[in-house]
Amino acid sequence: MIRLSICISTLNRAELLAETLESIGPQLTDEVELLILDGASTDNTQEIIAAFAARCPRLRSVRLDKGEGFDEKYCRLAELAAGEYCWMFADDDLLKPGAVAAVLEATRKDYSLIVVNAEVRSKDLAVCLQPRRINFQQDRTYSPTPSDFDHLLADTAMYLTYIGAIVIKRMLWNQRERQKYFGTIFVHVAVIFQSSLPADALVMAHPWIVIRYGNALWTPRGFEVWMFTFPELVWSFTHFADWAKQRVERREPWRCWHRLLMARAMGHYSGNEYSRWLERRFKSPLEKLFGRTVAAVPIAPLNFLARFLVKWILRKSPSITLYDLERWRGSSASTP
Question: Which of 50, 55, 80, 63 is nearest to 10 (CA)?
């Protein structure tokens, strides 16, 4: 009887997938299956999967004839899975030794949701940017009561934008509204928070996952995702208290001057983003002037000032914010 299905969607990331599989394979037991959905990769992903399957009888794989969206693929994985629980994992991150055993033990307590903590590292894994994505020193359990559900949202929703943290009962996933959220890349967040959970949720304090930061396929959509898609999703959950949603994200973060300046310093905001997303939303001439002005600020000096602020004034080095700022500098230096 399969208790846990580790579900991975992949597309054209064969080399990274190989590392992910090597971190998972030695931890599999008779209660665990590894399920891979290949979204019509054109690289050697199929060879990597076949080679691993030859020495891992717990692996099942499905290949699509044509690509599907991020949300659709994980919903398809939940339908294909055999386990009582699905661990919706990423194709480029790693599991620490003992991770599967720890999650298996947690599933025996009949939680609706298990949130697996992670440490965050640079793309080459050389630098630890954050030792615990959720800064808990002890496990926490949240009941389905409205008050506890508010706190679950406030404490975890930003982290749960990372799908690899989620271990959820398969039946619960398949019973929830999903199609409404296709295209958001956050169907997993909607599945969890669209209504109260039938049983307790557990947040594991120990970081069992190693996140390879800055490798998301949707990174070019960063301005749209963080200024609009995710905030609008969070504030669409009308059954949560406003304080809980405010803890996760502002209702309209694009109105914050420092958020726009930081987006510009990272190279995520330009005149194109202003024309597409902000021009029609800004009502007053002063707002429009500000939006256009920030989009025209030279990135190099702004990036330097932002890095100086984060590194020497706020003393946050290393950090995810500093890493994002330095990535722009690196990409800029390599551009002819």
Answer: 63
CB proximity list for 65: less than 8 A, separation 6 or greater: 40
| Cα gap 231→88, rounded to integer Å | 22
pTM above the 0.85 mark?
A: yes
- In Å, how far are 9, 139, 284, 315, 328 from 297, measured between CA atoms? 39, 45, 20, 25, 15
- Mean per-residue pLDDT over the chain, rounded: 95
Same domain, 139 and 24: yes
Closest-CA residue to 75 (of 174, 169, 175): 174
**For residues 321 and 213, what is the distance between their CA atoms, to the nearest angstrom?**
11
The answer to whether residues 174 and 223 belong to one domain is no
- For residue 87, what are the β-bridge partners? 6, 167
Co-location of 53 and 27 in the same domain: yes
Domain boundary among 189, 212, 235: 212
Do 229 and 290 fall within a single domain? yes
Domain termination site, one of 212, 231, 246: 212
Per the structure, the count of domains in the chain is 2
What CATH number did the domain enclosing 188 receive?
3.90.550.10
pLDDT of residue 8: 98
The pLDDT value recorded for residue 126 is 96
Could you read off the pLDDT of 86-145 as tens digits, one per residue? 999 999 999 999 999 999 999 999 999 999 999 999 999 999 999 999 999 999 999 999
Whether 171 and 233 map to the same domain: the answer is no
Give the number of other Cβ atoms within 10 Å of residue 302's Cβ.
Answer: 19
Residue 272 lies in domain: 219-333
Cα 216 from Cα 148, distance rounded (Å): 31
Question: Is residue 132 helix, strand or coil?
Answer: coil
- The more confidently predicted of residues 121 and 218 is 121
Which residue, among 97, 123, 130, 106, has the nearest Cα to 208 in the 3D structure?
97
Model confidence band, residue 221 (pLDDT cutoffs 50, 70, 90): confident
User: What's the CA gap between 161 and 229, in Å, rounded?
Assistant: 11
Three-state secondary-structure class, residue 60 = strand
